[in-house]
Design a protein that fits this description.
It is globular and about 40 Å long. It is built from six helices and two strands; from the N terminus they run βαααααβα. It is mainly alpha-helical. The protein has a two-stranded antiparallel ribbon.
Amino acid sequence: MYSCINFEATGKNLKAYRLKANLKVSQVQDVFGFMYPNAIYKWEKGECLPDLTNFVVLEDIYHATLDELLVVDRAPEYMMEGRSERDDLSAVIGLTKMSLFLFIYGKCICRG
């Protein structure tokens, strides 16, 4: 068994952070330029998750980090002794952000 993202709990978390930021769904919709708010409602219901690029935007508008927004169910046998869940998640998020940076940086260089 491996660790995995809990979609339902993450959705509830996204809604809680939106409310904490005192934002309406329509305001988040405007930030993303979505014609309809359906995607945001699906995120908050846990039916699907934002892609990584959208999570980066959510970090900014909700004033939260990715590891605060995501809820990860950890498999106990997967955990290394002496490490916390936050340590493991922070390492994964760090690598993900670095990959995203390199991808975007590579695109910018290719465009000249």
